[in-house]
Amino acid sequence: MGLTMEDKWIELLGCLLLGKRLNAGSFEILATRLSSCLNSNCDFKANDNFIRAILSGS
């Protein structure tokens, strides 16, 4: 059985929710995966720069 949308969000945003630091490689992977997830599951185009700005604050 595949992951639910909630599972994907918690997996992707665990660094923010749990206060974990990201290294540069993980940051790019996370930003790319989050953007892809939003673009495929929502009716709008996610702004990659906005996603990176939010994640850089973690």
UniProtKB/TrEMBL annotation:
Domain of life: Eukaryota
Name of protein: Uncharacterized protein
Organism in which the protein naturally occurs: Platanthera zijinensis
